[in-house]
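[09:14] KT: can someone run the structure on this one? pasting the chain below
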Amino acid sequence: MNYETDPYNGLNFYELSHVWGHGAPSYPGNEDVIMYRSVKHGQHGVMTNRLKMVMHTGTHMNAPIHMIQGGAGLADIPLECLFGNGVILHIPKKKWGLISIDDLKNTEIEIQDGDFVVLVTGWHQKYSDSLEYFGESPGISKESAEFLVSKNVKLVAIDTPQIDHPLATSLAGHRGGPLMNRLEENYAKETGNNPKKDHPEWNVAHKILLAAGVPTIEQVGGNIDSLKNTRATLIATPWRWVHGDACPVRLVAIIDPTGKNRLDSGG
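[09:31] RB: done, structure tokens below
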């Protein structure tokens, strides 16, 4: 079964996060997650782990401060951006694909004002420490990011390694790049296009969303295939970290198969 059912109210809960831990794929240029047991059951009757990591590992949330100076940190993200209704859109993309405005406008289910938006390209199926997963992934176009902001979305999540196309990041020749050798060369050879002309701005889609106060979740996974083109209630649980730029996050979708459950006003 791809979901858990609450025996009291019949709600179905879907996991939308990849399994995290030692060996989780790390962004090129970043160190791997280092985790070990500092206290062990066999010695002390209790277990404690220690870890060293870059927060942008596995399924993780980015706060506005990640790219916007003076932007909100994780602890300052409003709760309305962590729990609410939204849409999970299936927009399949192949190698180096780009999610366009037309893709967002011509979906089976319309993006409503104030929605959470989860974009499923199919790239989560390639989740691994590989050149393909990180360097050949799809991304969101500048115009699509602007469209999402115009819809007053509360959160944007995607099943790719990063919000932007890899040629618009430091994996290519932007800001300290390239972190992946021959990425631009391979792109030019296979597409016949100039990567700098196709993707002239660094992390432009990500900056547009974060500048508008929209937190983002990258590397969505889990049972996302079960919810393509579905409306759902979504819960994201980042750390309450003051000035935090990013952290691993648990993303969960809730479906009410009966349509009878509603949040009580508490009055």
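[09:33] KT: thanks! The chain has a mean pLDDT of 95.
[09:34] RB: yep, looked fine to me
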